[in-house]
């Protein structure tokens, strides 16, 4: 979270804009929260340049719930093609099997999710109702630098992107997208809010078993207020959108993300102790997994590195449990200085031969 946002939220905690109550105490149908919601929608549309023919839905359940909600709404129970580039897209394909004929169109599993399968090799089916990709794989640190152009591949199906972990860090080319979803907790706000942006011609085809609260049409028709929305998380996300707009929007975030990521990748590549195994053309700007070589001490050195990092206030650097090692998640709110300090510590650790 950007520090300025946390400060505003703290200052407004007990009394929002002099109305005598905090956001958590407001009725979600009252005029105060209605004003917050309307501003949040309009700031988000401006921030991500979302065209008018896309609906913005503020939902709950996180990215994992969308793995079920999207097929319930868009698959018609028929074919859906998945491009598996890491753990998250794999999970999406497995969950979808419960609701539709999910098929893997391409996978980078044989390279331990270190390369991006070129779009020209994807085995897309003519009858697919949509094609699912995860545009940034948070665990493996693999990012699509551009979204695939399905139409140019001769595929008429809409593209669904799980952009949970890099949304608002780069512009989105909406002409290539049918639906985008993202859990809020990386770049948009606190956990508990899930963003769905869906092209309006894709509404109205949910399966009968789809719960009403997860039916995109119902949510859209009710302005994301079919049931009580996560009001405080929406308010916080709204503050983040205002902060992002003040910083210069997603273009400014992209410039910063490139600067932060280059700083860390250059340090990793120049080191003999640390390495990042991902192919250069699909290295993530947001999530950078890195490892200490076996010769330099492997797991034991990694533990020492983490202890020393914590002593220096460098937190949350442990790699995901499924891949181990280290990981720096450089989300929008991370100042450049956070990366400079990490790199300085890595260099110090290496100079001292792995003694924290
Ligand atoms: N997709 C991606 C790309 C993610 O990074 C995550 C969470 N790290 C998820 C889906 C799952 O999101 P949630 O925990 O909000 O269900």
Descriptive report:
The structure is a single chain. This protein has 356 residues and is of the alpha/beta class. Helices cover 35% and strands 15% of the residues. It contains 9 helices and 12 strands. It has helices spanning 3-12, 31-47, 62-74, 87-96, 216-221, 231-247, 249-270, 298-311, 336-351, and strands spanning 54-59, 79-84, 101-107, 131-134, 136-137, 142-143, 159-162, 179-183, 194-199, 274-275, 287-292, 326-329. The strands form 3 sheets. A 7-stranded mixed sheet has the order 1-9-8-7-4-2-3. A 3-stranded antiparallel sheet has the order 10-11-12. Helix 1 (3-12) packs across helix 6 (231-247) and helix 7 packs parallel to helix 9 (336-351). It is globular, with a radius of gyration of 21 Å. 43% of the residues are buried. The model has no long low-confidence stretch (mean pLDDT 97). 4'-deoxy-4'-aminopyridoxal-5'-phosphate binds at residues 62-64, 88, 134, 138, 162, 164-165, 183.
